[in-house]
């Protein structure tokens, strides 16, 4: 009414007669709240709720104050309503003056209210949903908990007396409870994101094992023709499983303040919702599984925070009385270690949790006295680090026994020192302890186990041995003294233990594990007898929880027939599959950074008196002369039939010339040499394939041919392939051996200079050797008797495949397949340069380098019309260059005889593979592989530079055998160089000269490689670790050089590096006389005349005097001395070669950023390398991230991928984006916590990708990657709530089929926040072959305009943001570098956009300059092997008003200050090929970072930094 709202009560009156209808009786209306007209505090009632508390009820009114439209809740007193008293209810209507009132925030309204079920002895809790938050209120309307959120629907679902569930607008089902802090709210489930997004979810109910919801469509509904437009779809309920352990534990903790009763509730909750280790009543593939579904880190954290470690320990281990030797199942594996540690009841539980996931390590930790010793974690491993931290925590709590157990596992020098001190202190004041066994283990007496890289004991070992020695000489508790001094120890004791305490030796020790064996439970128990910390048992948890009471066992309301089936888990909970990134990557990703023990071998002692290693042939099954299982495995590596790395070259005692070489697979096939074996050599590889590592991976050697001799006869490498062997694959097999109808043969070969090859070389051939046929005949190049097929190198550089059925296929004809280059990820570059056609081989260059080629033949005789037909594909450097169906006929068979399996098997009884027939001198072959499967193009590219799993060294058990005189027959040769043995292979500290100063290693030539690797193998006792850790500085065998040799090498290296600086600091020669050429004027745009880079390199061409528009001449010398660092000093040589080669489908440093909007200071301050990206190189099992200005510079992660790019350091982490080409899957890792952030399944090829700074999308702390596919460019924001790639431009017909060379974005749409976006994209593209010009195209980002080709022949281009542009919308300028005759011309042109059509254009006005080449006229550096090739010839970078051009082959850097004109500010010559360059901001200017290739060693390079200022 106009005077205010009123309330009226209706009471149903029962009928007095059966025929009389029931009626309602109305009471008189009563005023609600304050209803006085004209009162400023007048409140209008709008909603009425009936609230119950046990048998009492109360009215709650939601009202709105008219004065300011502010809502409030008013709750009356709880009373028992007397039904006979019809008027008493009026006095119970709440009023503002007498009742509890809660005022909401301005503009906030109540959407729903739920009365949570009341718990005994506890007051009611009200759950209220408003327009902006969810609250829990007491009956006095006091806020117990609240959270700010936007609700998808106003529905609330009670989860207990203190917990409520709701559905937020981000499509997540959440809960709110009365706990404080971070435990007050949590996540229950994530609902599918609807399409379209106008759907609204409505939460209906939450039950113990499921939740029910529905969704409604808020959009207009389309009605079919002749349909009823007045009808509407009725939403149906959707059921999903619910895992409610976390909210139910939170609710139980809210009522835990009642002694006894609260803990009983917690046990009941854990019994019904806790761990479940048996799938019953489901099968193994159904239900919620047995890995701990529902158990989250927050559950353990909540219980530990409230001091309830017994239930937490039960959830973790399944028992509350766990001892060290007990068998337990730690659940679940995805909980981080810090949460598990908080739930551990005692140190024994800690050990179980830490060793969980590694069966051998777990068994050893449980009972080190009885079980076999296993691999122990390195001190840098997270498990060892947390053990050390837990030990210190135990010491603070007075738990000596627990501290000793933790220190025992930690295993570093500091922890062993603390372990020794605690052991010695434990005997003070206690005569019952016995520390002898502990001291013996710490000292290593009698065990003979190695410590790190030598037999030198650690400091703690020496002190433990001294304590043990003094203890053994005690008499009546004291050591006898003579003349006030103790008797001296033996000379042997002093030599082994005491001499190692010299400070110089202690400082030289690396951080490593000092013991490879644990002290043991019995020894520690004797040491700490009487000092154990006893955990008081909890009577409530002495008996285990009954799994039969679990909600997923007994069903809702104890109705088992209503248990959800869950036969396909991914349909219920969503697919969660961690990426498989090498042997350790899956566990590391699954456990979100929790430790996964690396497979570190305890020792590397290999000698003739060993047994227990894996037999090479023990698992091979042969039936009827056929090796079983060939080609029947699922993975390619399991189908590996032959693998040869020529590792026999590493063993000086090997008789490979006479006995042959054994392949590394379990089949142990043998390859023998034909002809005079003295004409073959095994030399350390000079290819780019991973050369292996002593003790870990078999070393890679090249088989070098000395060339054909007239009297030599047959020469080459022969692999016997009898019928039924593991290499009898690919063709001519019946249906009974269908798995053998596939074969992939691949290898690397090296060719000398082209002039040395005048005749055909048979790279590979398969021939049938009939009985009585001379072996010389099948090895003759001209005699084709018995040959089935062959792969021949022609003098022209082409490869040709031939079969005995007349089939011929050339690699360069491309008649059967379309050549495609670098269209998919996984191409890591090659050792070839200058090859314009994908089917032409690379020859060794006259100045050295090049010549390495990779070839792969893939055979498949499946699905062919006859047994004699076989599909053949040829790949060179991972790219398909030919395909055909070959006719291959067994010699001597005619007609239908080939269809008779018995006749066919008899004809193929003896065959052989031959390699390198008629090879010339210095022909090399290496990394020979044969697979019984069809290898895909992406797989070939990904693995052709990596070693295979079969190359990993197997572990053997060391057993000492004594001869009759009791002497050890094992090699007991003392380490070289006195007390210290040579450093191990692998990750090493840099070499030092005689003064201890670190020196640089000079670049290696091919002849030096053999010497260094041979020196590394002279010492047998290598120690190594297989864990993924930070790269330390690499060695190349310099530990075996004399001091004089080291000094000479250091001087040579220093001189080579100083040569760069010296040539850069030399003033340029004066320009030749004559007037400078006329500079390009400000004129209308015209097309650049067509020219190629080769024309510019003609030294006989006229080179005109360089000039520019610069107002200042080129500077002489440096403003600041450049910073130079050699890659091989920071990482291993193979990693250095991979860094120079670069990542696939992207630039080394990521690309130019100077065309984007000004960086947000927040972004720039967070990232330490803003503007210069880190370089990520990938292998099959690990990824290396190299950052030139951080320590350590190289970090390695257990992530195997085809390629990777890395983001800048952001406020919430650093992100590595990996691409798995085989699965077409993208995975993003957060490197700080080592977690998998998101996965993306690709449905198309990936042509180019890079990281973009936040200005390109979102502007503030946004993680953005650009993905370029055949469809166009996509912005991918992995951290977005809906991480789906967003297409920002379409490729269009003009750009289809062209290779992306560089990509960058520039400009701004002027928005801020999530709507911010760049305006223009610049692409440099080319066609597939390398001889074509480079084109520059610009496109509108986020628009529909067509791509614009701004130049059909450029050397380089970039986008440039004018220095005066602030935070506003703008289009960038375009910087282009073109070649006109012998000149290099730089131009800067503004871009524009048609407001009506959105079409982009380049303005007619430009400013420009001609680059001065006078001081680099004779400089021409050859590019190394690069994954992206030699494009572009000029790298353009812009930043803060500077434009820098780097002429790569000239090694020339020219920097301009671009304002109204181009002002030359710096020009330098770096004397090496420029691999990549990037700019970043520094105080007073910019810093140019260069990656240079070493002119003397293309597999090495430099990082150089140059400061540029105005």
What does this protein look like?
It is built from 29 helices and 69 strands. It has 1510 residues and is of the alpha+beta class. Strands 25, 28, 29, 31, 36, 37, 38 and 40 form an 8-stranded antiparallel β-sheet that branches. An 8-stranded antiparallel β-sheet has the order 26-27-30-39-32-33-34-35. β33 and β34 (799-803) form a beta hairpin. The longest helix is centred in the last third of the chain and has 23 residues, at 1043-1065. Residues 448-454, 568-618, 815-836, 955-1042, 1044-1120 and 1163-1167 have low confidence and may be disordered.
In summary, what is this structure?
The chain has 1510 residues and is α+β, with helices and mostly antiparallel strands. The protein is 16% helix and 27% strand.
Task: Categorize the overall geometry.
Answer: globular
N→C terminal distance? 78 Å
Our Rg estimate from Cα atoms comes to 39 Å
Biggest sheet descriptor: 8 strands, antiparallel
Total helix count?
29
Helix content: 10-25%
- Can you tell me the residue ranges where pLDDT is under 50 for at least 5 consecutive residues? 448-454, 568-618, 815-836, 955-1042, 1044-1120, 1163-1167
Give the number of DSSP strands.
Answer: 69
Average pLDDT reading: 75
